[in-house]
Amino acid sequence: MLAKLLTYSIFGIDARPVEVEVDISPASMPKTILVGLAEAAVKESTHRIERALVNSGYTRPVDRIVINLSPADFPKEASSFDLPIALGVLAASGQLETSLFSEYSAVGELALDGVVRKVRGALSMALQARANGKKGLIVPVENSREAAVVDGIDVIPVGSLAEAVGFYTGVLPIDPVPFSWDDAVEEHGTYPFDYSDVKGQEMAKRAVTVAAAGRHHLLMIGSPGTGKTLLAQRLGTILPPLSAEESLETTRIYSAVGRLEEGESLLLQRPFRSPHHTISQAGLVGGGSIPTPGEISLAHHGILFLDELPEFNRNTLEVMRQPLEESRVTISRAVGSVTFPASLMLVSAMNPCPCGYRGDPKRQCHCSPMQIERYLSKISGPLLDRIDIHIEVPPVPFRELSARTEGTRSETMREQVIVAREAQRERFGKDGSLVNGTMAPQQIRKYCKLSKEAESLLKAAMEEMGLSARAHDKILRVSRTIADLDQAEFIDVPHLTEAINYRTLDRSSWTQ
Q1: What is the Cα–Cα distance from 25 to 386, expressed in whole angstroms?
Q2: If 158 and its partner were Cys, which of 63, 95, 163, 185 is the partner (CB 3.0–4.6 Å)?
């Protein structure tokens, strides 16, 4: 007897449909054969399924069982096939009669006692089930909230194999899991910190506001303890709230790698990723025999913070250059190519020298010019060219640390950012994802027009600082953002002057 039902397998962050075919035929000796390019975790599932069937009160067929996972040339490596295979075995052996296999797909890992355990990528699976025209998707209870985010499909939560069988036979009606965007925002959409926590550093806060307004990459340079990490951690509080589409895109990535917090249905805060400087290339950009996303994709629509930037392996940093330009990363393997999104703000921090106290008014730096040059040379010029804003973060005086008055609040900074983002939305029209920080050269020429005085100033800065063509474009992009913050139509000398001042590492006086 033959039974068929549809399930899904994760490849990258996308779900691919897999048809489970189970055929049971008489044989002198019981035997289970699993075919379809199954990896170790899937091959081992036959033992879990056998005990789950018996321990749930069903009979393990004593015949020849052939299980085929189609398409046969696509590798299957997850444990999410347990539940659909078990259901197929029950249907093929006559213990389950249903007409719902064509309407409802199923995913889930089985414990030996028949309990259904959570899987990775339930959100992508629900999206693919809807694309396949399915009425619903059977998922583990722990995955039900994230899958229920998808409109137009019923997400049925089951806690055990017996519950799944009861639903398919109609004996146990199970209501679909509801989803409320407002409830999710109220529960997970607020930040526990604010820029008012950062004493002093008003100039640095201004630079952070400019960076957030145009989604410009940012590098902060300062002695230990000046507040660089605090400034970076609070960036999400001034960025515009995640739209429904952005939230869904980011949640898919976290769902595919199993990084969603328990009870969390959607990511409603901007991701903030801060990997250690010992991270590998694969950990940063993604990799593996079957590609999985790295930190730059986990920071999609959020912030990737690289603290102690010169301590990172130089080759590891260099692999970020192309993803920063293209907002995506493509990984090719023998099994196929996968493209992960990587639209992010790169925020990095570094000390001004190996000891960290160059320029500190209270501590003396003992680093030689050769040591400083060697330290700064760990960051390549091409990577620095891709960072729009370089700022110095000086030590905070005691009078500012002890002051009772609050500094600028996140709410005030966010209002400025939203005004600037609205101007960019009107400027770029249909492409709502485009911001000043990602303008192409032709758009720079169109939207970043300078007055004669400003053009003379930029020419002098280019000659004096020896800027590259990419740095020239970065200055114009940042100038456009500063003008948007002032609600100015054209870029004037003050806007350009501020943007030039944000190129700290391009000034020869700093590097000498």
Answers
A1: 63
A2: 163
